[in-house]
Amino acid sequence: MINQERIKNLLLELVQIDSVSRKEREVAERIRAICEEMGAEVEIDDAGSKVGGNTGNVIARFPGTIPGAEPIMMSAHMDTVVPGEGVRPVVEGDIIRTDGTTVLGGDDKSGCAVIIETIRCLQEQNVPHAPIDAVFSICEEVGLLGAKHLDLSKVRARYGLVFDSDDPGFLFTKGPSSNHFEFKIFGLESHAGVAPEQGISAIKIAAEGIAAMKLGRIDEETTANIGVIRGGEATNIITNLVLMSGEARSLDEDKLNAQTEHMIKCLTDAAEKYEVTVAGVTTKGRVESVVTREYFAMDVPDSSRVVRLVLDAATRMGLEVKTLASGGGCDANIFNKNGIECANLGTGMRAIHTVKEWLDVKDMYAAAEMTLEIMRLNGETARAAAGG
Ligand SMILES: [Zn+2]
After folding, report:
1. Residue 165, Cβ neighbours under 10 Å: how many?
2. What pLDDT does 228 receive?
3. How far is the CA of 107 from the centre of ligand 1 (A)?
4. How far apart are CA 350 and CA 359, in angstroms?
C-alpha cells in the first residue's frame, strides 16, 4: 500500500513551488534533494542552457535490489503552463483545485509525486525491484524541449513509463505526429481611401485561404488548427503583411503530409489571385510557409514489454487498463523516437491548462498503487529471468 497522506502532502508542496516552463529551477532543486535523501545518484543535465531555461532535466538513478536486472524509467515533467505562479491549492475533501487565478499544476506534478511515492514504498517495504531511472523533465509544455534535449548518456533505462495524462485507467500507447506552421502572407501597401486599386490586402488573402481550409477534426486520426493571426496597422492602410501560425497532427504520416500540403495550397491559391501593376512594377500576392516537425508519432504495440507489464499488473490487481491513442503529444513521443520504449499512464489531473484545473486524490492514489504493482511485477519478472 502507498502512503496516501504523504503523497497528497508532496503534491500540495510541489504545486506551491512555481515552475512555469523555463523557470523550473526551484522545483528541480527540491526534487533533487528528495531523491538524494532517498539514495539516488542525481544529475541535472545541460538541457536548460540549450533551451534558455534556468535548469536542466533532473535524472535520478536509483539502485535496484535484483542483481542483473535491467533498469526501468519513470518520467514526469516539472514545468507548468501559465498562469502558474503563486498557486494556492484549495482542498475540498478528495478534490484539489485552485483559487481560480492559476492552473493547479497537477499537470504534471501529480506525475512527479506518483514516481517519488512509488520508489519510497519499494524501498520501505523491501520490495525487490530493478534499478530505476527517474527522469523529471523541463519545458514539456513548450514543445517537449526537455525530452528533446535529454542527455541520454545519463539514462540507463531503455523502457519505462511516462506519467502525464488524466485517467489512471488508461494507458496511452499511440500519439500523433505534429507539424507546426509559420505563414507569412505578403500583399502590397496602399492608401485604402485614395488608391485601393494599387494595393493587395494580405488580410483578404489570409481570410480566403483560411476559409478554403479544412480545419478542426479532419478525420478520426487527424486534426488541424490556425491558432494565431496577426496583421494590420490602421483602417486606412491596405495591409501588406499577415503572420499566422497553426498546426496539424495525425496518427498517420501520409494523412499529416496531405493535410500539410492542403493548408499551404489554400493560402498560395488565394495569394495567386491577386496582382497589381503600379508605375510599371507588377506585384503579386505571395505566401512563405515554414513547416517544422514538432514531434513524431508514437505507436507502442500491446505486445511490447512495457504494455504487457502494465496490463498484467492491472490484471493482478483485478483492474482493467485500456490502451488507447491520444490526440496530444507528450515526452513519450520523444523518448520512443530516441530509443526508450514507453507509454503514458494517467494520474488524475483534470481540466488541465485552465484555471479550473482540479485533481481527485483518489485517482492519484490509484495511479501510485498501480505503479507500485507494476514495479513489483517487473522485479518478479527480472528475478525469474535471473534464475530466482
Ligand atoms: Zn503534462
Report:
1. 26
2. 97
3. 5
4. 6
219 belongs to the catalytic site: no
In tens, the pLDDT along 138-165 reads 999 999 999 999 999 999 999 999 999 9
Does this model's pTM top 0.85? My answer is yes
Bridge partner list, 346: 165
pLDDT digits (tens, 9 = 90+) for 80-125: 999 999 999 999 999 999 999 999 999 999 999 999 999 999 999 9
φ, ψ for residue 322 (rounded to 5)? -100, 140
DSSP structural state of residue 81: P
Low-confidence ranges of the chain (pLDDT < 50): none
> What count of other Cβ atoms lies within 10 Å of the Cβ of residue 48?
23
Question: What are 360's three cell numbers?
Answer: 481527485
| Ligand 1 center–CA 334 separation, angstroms | 14
Q: Would you report the helix, strand and coil content of the chain in percent, each value rounded to 5?
A: 35, 30, 35
Q: Ligand 1 centroid vs 153 CA: distance in angstroms?
A: 24
Please return the burial class of 2, using the count of CB atoms within 10 Å of its CB with bins 0-12, 13-18 and 19+: buried
Burial of residue 154 (CB within 10 Å: 0-12, 13-18, 19+) is: middle
Query: CB under 8 Å to 211, separation ≥6 — which residues?
Result: none
